[in-house]
Amino acid sequence: MLDICLLGTGGMMPVPGRYLTAMLARVDGKMLLIDCGEGTQVTMKMLGWGFKAIDVICFTHFHADHISGLPGILLTIGNAGRTEPLTLIGPSGLAWVTEGLRRIAPELPFPIKYIELTEAKGTISVGKYEISFLSVEHIVKCYAYRIDIKRRGKFDIQKATSLQVPKEIWSKLQKEEETEFEGKLYTSDMVLGQERKGIAVSYCTDTRPIDQLIPFIKGSDLFICEGMYGENEKKQKAIENKHMLFSEAARLALQGKVEKLWLTHFSPSVSEPSEFFENAHSIFPNTELGEDRKKITLFFPESV
Amino acid sequence: MLDICLLGTGGMMPVPGRYLTAMLARVDGKMLLIDCGEGTQVTMKMLGWGFKAIDVICFTHFHADHISGLPGILLTIGNAGRTEPLTLIGPSGLAWVTEGLRRIAPELPFPIKYIELTEAKGTISVGKYEISFLSVEHIVKCYAYRIDIKRRGKFDIQKATSLQVPKEIWSKLQKEEETEFEGKLYTSDMVLGQERKGIAVSYCTDTRPIDQLIPFIKGSDLFICEGMYGENEKKQKAIENKHMLFSEAARLALQGKVEKLWLTHFSPSVSEPSEFFENAHSIFPNTELGEDRKKITLFFPESV
């Protein structure tokens, strides 16, 4: 299972009562954060999942509302006692930007590992997180992310027996990729059936609704997408500022055949997102408005 | 008159319900901010004094809880339409630290003027603000600040007449330093009596209660001082971390003969500062606990 929390729902600048857009994922106690604007650590503190177990922070881009909280959260992760490496993923320039911000957070008890994205798309695995990225269309270099939690096949007793895998390691091979027994190497595919459907969450802000997003978000259990402007009349503004309307996010959700859409990254001018809800809901019925610390637990489908 | 707002009262890290310690001053609509941690712009937004008229930001030191909100507030000041220069004052290294943070806020519509403090004490004037600084004792280089709003002498008709200052410029010279009339230069001291008592506010965090603070804060109408720890039993911890107890701040207030003390910069471990109020109040009766957005308007004393 995968826990998801939308830590904030604001865009552009932090405002009273609305933290900046960021998403936190948790699998087996290990956490992955996407974006970290000013105040993200405060809403995260309210959530109560702790800070020490953040293994990865992904950045969509380097506008301040998506990264200004980084030095503070690094210090807080350190204060929580982390000594294991922390992986940062983001557009190229990530190390340069981070080292600039770290002039006020120079001493940390854990090492930082940088992964700078240079390709237009690709996939990186960190622990159980399969992190896919796609270059999108904003004023500066920006990426959408998709998090897949893979699910292994079921134990296949016939396969295990026919391949003469010793019974002693059946259980171990259901958890690990490979194991040695009496001098011979065995791999998990020798005891498992076909990989089963996993869980996928996509996160997309800030961008225009480009076509490449459709296959990228395809079939996501949850699609978290920016809805910078509610009114369809603001399309020209959305085009100029490289953002999306509620209706454009909903159309992406429909075309990408996702299960559920959460709108977020509301402009400070959108004081009541519900006023514009129908602009998305009429296109994609399973739309929900994001709220600070809105949570969901996604499960693997019933075993088949 | 001088408006003062204590924007936040937290130390170390931002926590739910308590913004980081910062002070905002306003004279004739012109604002001066001291310290700017993560979230300062949000509590300032709640206050409602706007952002455009911030002329000066002073930094006590470069620990993240005192400066991490800088890139965000610079962008917000820019969004508010400021084009006039902004003066930043702080320990040496200020430009280097700020330029690091500005990797996420590179484009601003106003120039920044840096004043890096290298002396142990001194005074700088920016508009009506006479800003005094004193090097204090913290883990890193740190300064206390004192803001004086000077008050000119009263109009002295006898002096003006005897020095043959033309009546046409009497009014002007009561507001301006000097003016020319019919080819001759006149200065304000030709029409004004002795300078009258002004208004003074001192701001002191993070430091041990060093003796040099006593003359520095002398006679302040308001002394805003850190009270990192409430319990007197935490003295050893305060000494190690170079912070103050409530009782130490109160003793400074007493020795400095200030009018009023506001305690602030509470440790995240101090969830209810009022529990320890008596530790300060018993030493200095006019002690008040700081609260987020606590305000006061200080007036010049009645004319004499």
How does this structure look, described?
2 copies of one chain form a homodimer. Chain A is an alpha/beta fold. Chain A has 2 domains: 2-149 and 262-274 and 286-298, Metallo-beta-lactamase, Chain A (4-Layer Sandwich); 153-194, no CATH class. The first copy, chain A, has helices at residues 40-47, 64-67, 70-79, 94-101, 157-162, 170-173, 213-217, 235-241, 246-255, 277-281; strands at residues 2-8, 22-27, 30-34, 54-58, 86-91, 112-117, 121-126, 129-135, 143-151, 178-181, 184-187, 196-204, 222-226, 261-264, 287-289, 294-298. In chain A, the strands form 3 sheets. A 7-stranded mixed β-sheet of chain A has the order 6-5-4-3-2-1-16, with helices on one face. Chain A has a 7-stranded mixed β-sheet with strand order 7-8-9-12-13-14-15. The radius of gyration of chain A is 21 Å and the shape is globular. Chain A starts with a strand and ends in a 6-residue tail after the last strand. The mean pLDDT of chain A is 96. Chains A and B meet through helix 1, helix 2, helix 3 and helix 4 of A and helix 1, helix 2, helix 3 and helix 4 of B.
Give a brief description:
With 304 residues, the first copy, chain A, is an alpha/beta fold. The two termini of chain A are 16 Å apart.
Layout of SSEs?
2 copies of one chain form a homodimer.
Chain A: E1 2-8, E2 22-27, E3 30-34, H1 40-47, E4 54-58, H2 64-67, H3 70-79, E5 86-91, H4 94-101, E6 112-117, E7 121-126, E8 129-135, E9 143-151, H5 157-162, H6 170-173, E10 178-181, E11 184-187, E12 196-204, H7 213-217, E13 222-226, H8 235-241, H9 246-255, E14 261-264, H10 277-281, E15 287-289, E16 294-298
Parallel strand pairs in A: 3-4, 4-5, 5-6, 12-13, 13-14, 14-15
Antiparallel strand pairs in A: 1-2, 1-16, 2-3, 7-8, 8-9, 9-12, 10-11
